[in-house]
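Batch 3, record 17
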Amino acid sequence: MDFATLLQVLDSTVRLATPLLLACLAGLFSERSGVIDIGLEGKMLIAAFFSAAIAALTGSVWLGLLSGIVSAMLLSGLHGLASITFRGNQLISGVALNFLAAGLTVLIAQDWFSQGGRTPSLLEGGRWAALTLPLAETLRPVPILGPIYYELISGHSILVYVAFLCVPATWWILFRTRFGLRLRAVGEAPEAVDTAGVSVVALRYAAIAICGLLCGLAGSYLATGLQAGFVKDMTAGRGYIALAALIFAKWRPWYALWACLLFGLLQAVALRYQNIDLGGFTIPVQFMDALPYILTVVILAGFVGRAIPPRAGGQPYVKER
Amino acid sequence: MDKMPAWADAVLVPLISLLLAAILSALVILAIGENPIEAFNLMVEGALMRSAGWGYTLYYATNFIFTGLAVSVAFHAKLFNIGGEGQATIGGLGVALICLYIPWPHWSLALIGAALGAAAFGALWALIPAYLQAKRGSHIVITTIMFNFIAAALLNYVLVNLLKPAGQMDPASPIFPAATHLPTFQDMFATDAMPLFRGSPGNVTFFLAILACFAVWLLIWRTRLGYEIRALGHSESAARYAGISPVRTIVIAMLISGGLAGLMATNTAMGEAERLVMNATEGAGFIGIAVALMGRNHPIGVFLAAILFGFLYQGGAELALWTNIPRELIVVIQALVILFTGALDNMVRTPLERVFVAMRKERA
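Prediction for the assembled complex:
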């Protein structure tokens, strides 16, 4: 493999890791507050649809992004209603939301565009343009570093940079602010937070609102950045991979970045090479597809560094009387 | 305690949830500019007014009975098995291997063999998540989701690289030998004078599904193992104190659950396609969740809910054929049913409980 190919694979790793990273951080906020969210997939999907649909109708990618975020936050709100207000089963609610998004997106797409559940392909203004970072052209001739800067770091859409900036931002919010401390506490010992006079319900709603916002960004990037338009079931399990990355990362922001880059790399390699030939021994492409899930199961099994979830995850909080 | 009578809990709550789901679905249909009443009539017409419609309805229902029972057995042990999809996928592999490589003299023997194979393969696929949950505390929901994806990749590999006959384009196994073809309802009930169930895929596995309902009822409420499963589901500490091994019970409950999900493949692979195709499960593993929730984890409830979903599935196909409403409407209805009967249960239950308590006070 030569340098240019390597750069291309890494470049596509960055692109493919972006929606995973955004969704993974979304899950991180939700689960750190004690609300398990397996509805990341659904939220991404509905955001992907609305951002592509509104972008197609108005020609503005920003309006698309806005409606994507709003739709994902609405689903988040429904999850909150079921799992925080009515203290229902968070897992079942997540499953329901995934199906709701899978069905509604196609239903509405068919009604609006009559193209068999997809949106029209987006034109210039409806997609995120690639940003060329300053000096990228000038530095390009510099050996090694020039191409790395030009190909790998520059030339992505703005959401990619937003996603990567979200990592330090998440770290800062969670570990350096009062809100973050409370958020983590409410996922570990909600009764203690309640005793301190802070509202458990408000904190959890805040967490899932952030979760909806980030899922909205992820879905929007998928439909208006990575691809040009919405197609049925376009998230293709990315929400679950993000969930896997979250466990892989042990619910920590910086680990989440590395986990998502790893899973993005696996996707990029599977996309580029069908079967990998290792001198007489072939790794089938299906194995590469399954690898993120296999790795997650191994991590979950606790053989390689135990992943311990937030203690109050999945349990609705009932105030003592 | 302020409790509702048992009948209200078992019948009224699911019915109200279903009603809410139906109202919202009707609103969705209205919103996309179609007439809900007309749509409903069309669904009834296509799914229930002709014998062929029933043939499809019962075919789908057979799948949902198996996956619904699978989810409910796990629910009794307080385990949420979302892996029905993967277990059914791998069950299909068992069916295919047994049908292709064993020369069966008669379909009845082949059905027994294939059912055992499907159940064994499905159970095997549930074994690792079960073991990890029981021994290492890995969350079964996450592991079974992961195993769904691994199953899909595995089946893809096996079909494309191993089972697909040379020269064939689509990734599927060869057609099963004729001796393993199961009699359809048409073969069983149609006469020259009464051409019933024409062309529909409903087949003898439906009766196997009814048998499974009975077996699950027997298991859960009439055996020691069933008692242990329920005890564990109610309280792990109490079960442990009573000498029930949680590890053993979790693993066995999940094996049974996986086996039931695997059995679904006898219907799809052997009864309908007569070969193993990619994505034969078509989401039936997930519909099992809705079916189990609606059926309150009781085999009779699961049976009725499965018929309802079979009707929705077949009716939805009719709608897609005759109107501008795509099949995904059924996915929306399914989501609403899961939402109301599962996640928003308290929203329906709490006010209803209040009504009953108020009525009792008035009487007193």
